[in-house]
Pleckstrin homology domain-containing family H member 1
Amino acid sequence: MTMTKYTTVSHKPSYTAALGGGDSKFVFRKRMFRRPKEIPEDPVEYHLMYAQAVHSVVKIDEFPINQDVALQLAGLHAQVLWGDHVQGMGSRYDEVEQYLHPRITAEDRNKTREDWKKAIAVAHKSYGMGKTVIEAKVWYLSAVKYYQLYGCTFFHVIYKGFWAHPNNLILAVGVKGIAFVNQNTKIIMAEYKYSQLQSVAVGMVEETVTLNMKAMGQGEQRNFSFETEQKEDIASLIASYSPAHGNWQRVGEAKTKMVQPTEEERATLWQEVWKCRKALAVEHKMLQEPPEKANFLTTTLRRYNRARLERLRRAREGADFEKIFKQSFWSYSKSMLKQPLSVLEGEKGDELEDTALKLFYTIQQHAGITPSSGSGFMEVEADDCVTMIQLATQKCLEKEALCNEFYLQLVKQTTDQPDPNGRINIQNWRFMCLTCGVVVPRNKVILNYLQAHLRRCSLDPHTDEGKYAQFAMQCLNRTIGAKNRKYPPSYREVQCIIRRRPIHERFYFMDSQFRGVEFDASATTQEVVAVVKERIGLLPRAMGFSLFEVFGQLERNMLPNEKVADAMFKWEKYARSTHSPKTLKLTFKKRLFVKPFMNPNDSIEFRLLLHQAIDDVVSDRFPLSLSEAVYLAGLRAQVVLGPYSERIDLVDYHSIIERYVPKYMRTRARPEDVARKHRDHGDLSEQECNENYLLFIRQWPLYGSTIFDVLQGYTGTLPKNLWLAVNEHGVHILKRREKEPLVSYEYKDIVNYSPSLKNLMIVTESLTKGTKFVFNTSQASQIAHLIRDYTRVIVERQRLSQSGYSRRPPR
């Protein structure tokens, strides 16, 4: 027999290594430490725990062990391996890494490898001599158990947010709770008991895990999000220690009411559905008679005598409407409709009927059924479910009659399905949920029927149909309260909603970091801003923050009542139509700067404004001289590269220039000058550098202004290329990259401002004799909205001031 060189092979005819066959291995070790300080009585368990402790100390350096303790432990480990120390057997200590972690040997650069071997031999003789193997293990484990974090599992994570600690840290999970640990010093920066933990959320898209804490003291952070590939390991280990948090896989899913309904409640809801059907068919005559019944009346009309015709007429107008609109009319059908369910009248009735049938065809296609007759929308591929959904909901948004018809079709296809938990029914319910999150039928009779149907189907929460019906009801109620959307769902929204989860999207900050946040399909900018503020720990009274749509070089502030889901679809469609590889970045930053610009006690707001100031400098929205740019780059070098050292290469300063100096200055900024400034900042801490950076930016009298690049050709007294700065005091016109304004106007002097698609006109002092400026800019509406919002702030401030004055008691 010929043996292959591979220890693991695939099932192919020839010998080849299987995926990971050379490196993968199973490791048996203790995962949970219920009583980490107790000594196990089982000698086998003790041996395994000793081996795991050696691995933690020597291989992965989990504890803050100094050089002296490390040598003591190395001596005990040598006693376990070799027994008593024997003079002249120095080869036992050749593998220094078997006894000491490289961090320990790197601390003393004066010692050679031979020196460390001798030190381990001395430790072996001093601390291990005379001890039995079991005694040496007891001493070793007792020393390791002294450390507070013994028994915890360490996960290397990256914090996604702003705080005073390093972003790269260790998340320690143990029997007592969770701890945030400094990677280098192993000092505990913060710790929480499981009783303080509200929930654990694992990112559906990103490699993140979020710890949501219960309400604590005023201003304390409640949400901590970490980037890690071990997100599920963290969540499952927390659940093992604290079973109350075992629902992490369902965090974010729509909550399902698990109340078991009575037979009386079922009968009542069925009666509601029946009344709604009667209202549709008889009272409001909104439904078309089934074609087979209509044909029957046409062909046999002459055969009926007057009495029989009268009885049929009463059936159509009274309680016996079910003789015409039989149960098959209201129930699921795998066959195509021969005509729309509702009456579609008007000038374009035939066109609407054709579209209505295409909508039903789309429902069938989405469910995985290929109808034997009819056709769908020509622009949709048969397997492109997302485009099907988008096109169908777009038709509903455009025409109220089609919206009513489409909901009747969806209700029909989710009624009396032979297999309620089968794929076809689930697909139909997903379509229902997505539509409910976008558009609501304006017709009250249709809406009542839809709500009665959802209430009836949600009676069985243990089934998938019941869960989707409850989720659809939640989406519908939110849309009723927030009104219809402008656009269909985006690809990301579809992927989230079909799982009965809120939309999950990234929100970026000015330091290029992001946080994943969940929100529903009807969430407005104002609502999402409040969620983001809470998630990053920003105090509620921090005002002026907003969301911006950033797509490449395009940037637009989102209005408070705009739907965030609409923005996602709008830019997704734009990217698809222009074949652009760019994606939308929803960016969170401060828009309105009103004194005092920030709360000095809020470290989160400070870091947000710091990185926004850095971005303004790099993006050429702050006036700088070359020497000032070099000074600021030196401050960033102190933060990024650490204290100045001669060993830092000039290439590193080239990188600092590329990251922190405006593009038009980079060829003139020399790395040697940045290095010199770096050396001048040698005694400053990271926090002091950040404070000095922001202090320098705030010294500009127009700090807090939003800068717009504009062109003007209306008057010869001003240059063609200008900056238009808008802040709480008014509007300022500057030469590009100049600090002093050419002219400034307070808001009380601006009598009119009128934006158009590409221009902005501002009139000051008087409509007839005042000064008029016409600026060419694609951001005219953004400037106008900013002027309006600052004006409102001033008016509100004056109102509060007068109100406060009027309440003062007389002296």
Notes: Residues 630 and 669 are 7 Å apart (CA to CA). The chain has six domains: 43-145, 156-250, 263-290+325-497, 522-590, 623-698, 706-802. The two ends are 110 Å apart (CA to CA).
